[in-house]
Structure formats: C-alpha cells, structure tokens
Design goal:
This protein is 22% helix and 36% strand. The protein is an alpha+beta fold and 216 residues long. It has a domain at 46-123 and 131-184: Chorismate lyase (3-Layer(aba) Sandwich). A hairpin with a 2-residue loop joins strand 8 and strand 9. This is PatA-like N-terminal domain-containing protein. InterPro entries: Chorismate_lyase_/UTRA_dom_sf, PatA-like_N. It holds the Pfam family DUF4388.
C-alpha cells in the first residue's frame, strides 16, 4: 500500500478509534497538510538490515537505538501541540503552568533523537498520547521535553506493552531530509507502534530511523 502526498479526509482523533492500530495519516496530519513534505510511505512486511534489527520488535525505540549506537540519546522537540478539553489547540504550552498541562486532552509532538557523545541524529518521530492514561507526574515529565519518552516510562516503572503495528518504507521529502541529515529521495524505514499503559491504549508512535552506525 503506497500512501502518496496529500491530506486525509478524516478528522484528527485523540487516539485511533480501534485501539489496536495506529492511523498513520491522522498522526501526520497533526503537523503536515502535505504529507509529501515529510516523506512518502509504503507499507511493507520485510525490511533490510540494519533496519530490521532497529524496528521489527516489541520494545522501546529509546532502548533499541541506544544499544545499537552504543551511547545514550537525548530528545529534541521540534514542534508540539496540546489539544484541550474545551476544544482549544495550542502549539506550545508553558510547562511551568501545570493547570495547562492538566487541561490537555491530547498531546502530540515531533521529535528527533540525538546521540549524546557523537551528536548524530538517529531517529525522527511523531508521538501522540492521551494524558489521562498516565499518572500526572509521568505526563508532566513527558511534557517537559527533557527526557526521551521511553526512558520516562521505564524509570517510572509504568506497566506498559509496546505493540509493533506496521513497518514502512520511507522515501524522504524535504522535511525528513532536513531533520535526519538525508538527501531528498533517500530511502529509510520506519514503523508505527502503540504503547499500552496499565493495559490501556495510551501512546501512538511513528518512528523513522537512519540506520547508520555499528551494532554494539
């Protein structure tokens, strides 16, 4: 299934309605009116190494890329979006105002992961979560944008299950090329995944990796 540039006809959801699958188009629509600005996506079942090792599993990407590249990663938040219970949408919320965080119904952000020592950009992601599925302290830590999502969940011992949904062949558009230091038209791979917290669908993910560097 090839998904060309364009816009979906369905509205953005808090989380995908099925609770079993991640709606890639809905995630992309959070930040892209023209999907081709980021990339073109083709659904695949088999992917080459090293992408298979990096993506084809039921584990947190934070842990996986840190093991693969042999060093910790930091998160860089490029854009964020808070949707409030009263219908308002904000592109940036002051995390020093807990009342704004507590009123958030859905939170989406576009990020990259960067290795701490070598400063290599190794992953792009779009994350959408339901704050009500998390404890207040965990949600506020995630919203701070200072710690990768997977590390927050692990360090807080959140009962979680990572579900790999789909694998994607990704042809870089201008924005992905800029974020991952690629050339337009380069082919990399990604996945959509769902994280359940305390058995409840809580976090939807699009995760795209460069695949550079040795396996440690």
């Amino acid at each position: 299934m090839l998904m060309p540039p364009g816009s979906p006809s369905t509205p953005i959801e808090t989380l995908s309605e099925s609770g079993e699958q991640v709606d890639l188009k809905s995630l992309l629509k959070e930040f892209y009116s023209d999907f081709g600005e980021l990339a073109e996506f083709e659904l695949v079942t088999d992917i080459p190494e090293p992408f298979d090792t990096l993506l084809n599993h039921q584990s947190h990407m934070t842990v996986t890329v840190e093991h693969y590249h042999g060093e910790p990663v930091d998160v860089v938040v490029h854009r964020r979006r808070n949707r409030f219970r009263d219908g308002r949408v904000a592109q940036a919320v002051d995390v020093a105002k807990p009342e704004e965080l507590d009123a958030t119904e859905a939170y989406t952000r576009e990020i990259t992961l960067v290795t701490q020592d070598t400063q290599r950009v190794v992953q792009h992601g779009i994350v959408r979560l339901d704050p009500s599925a998390l404890t207040r302290s965990v949600w506020h830590q995630i919203a701070s944008g200072e710690i990768p999502l997977g590390r927050v969940l692990i360090e807080n011992n959140v009962l979680r299950q990572v579900q790999l949904c789909r694998l994607w062949k990704v042809t870089a558009g201008e924005r992905l090329a800029e974020l991952l230091n690629l050339s337009v038209g380069d082919v990399v791979y990604g996945r959509t995944a769902l994280i359940r917290c305390d058995h409840r669908p809580a976090i939807e993910l699009l995760e795209i990796v460069r695949g550079n560097g040795p396996i440690g």
